[in-house]
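Lay summary. Proteins are chains of building blocks that fold into shapes, and those shapes determine what they do. In this project we predict the shape from the chain. Here is one chain we studied, written as its sequence of building blocks.
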Amino acid sequence: MQYRRLIPVLFIMNGLIVRSEDFSTHQIIGNIINEAARYNQWNVDELIYVDISRDKTYDSRRDDHKIKAVDSIETIITEISKVCFMPLTFGGGIKTIEDVDLRIRTGADKVVINSAAYHTPELITEVARKYGSQCCVISADYRMVDGTPILFTDFGSNNTGINVVDWVKECQKNGAGEIFLHAIDRDGKACGYDFDTISDVTSATSLPVIACGGAADVDDFIDVYEETNVAAVAAGNMFHFTERAYPRAKKDLVREKIHVRP
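And here is the predicted shape, written in a compact code that computers can read:
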């Protein structure tokens, strides 16, 4: 039986780590490379970086012996991979197979594809054929609209009108290997996970599902592991602002007999 994973998610905006809320408010909180090194010390199961920069310009605002300057996505992934010895998944700004090639070549183990999967769904198949389905993670961002979870793309601005459950089925048919299910309404709100939608999605697909959006404390992790069949739970803000949050969460999960890697 495979371990269920607990995954920190780091959002990059213009070269710095930011705290995200509702996909619209972003607070600068740290350096990209130093954060990877910190999580590496905690021996996390996996690390997901998502580049949410709108204009794809990058400036880490320092270049000295402690903080390396970064000015491109290529430099960012290369520097992260030097200090990151856990599986590294990288997303954001991927529109073509050449974008995927660059991220794999510079150190990513898997890629997260979001809006491009909607605009050019054949990219999913192309990535799966070239690198294997396990490399292709589809980020499905959704909001509740009249009680239905609807897929949104393009930084949460484009209402596709598609039920996210149907979208996940389509992605599986096209060759996706994993689903990153992100509740926009809960982003940065610390209001708990959306059990109903998570359960509907995990019931509709055989793909591993990573649930993201809503974590406030370790009890939220325990609840979503117990109430749904998610393969992994992801969180961002909680790990940034609580001292040794990750190792303490793992300890609590093991104590509650959740099947995670100690």
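What the prediction tells us: The chain is about 35% helix and 25% strand.
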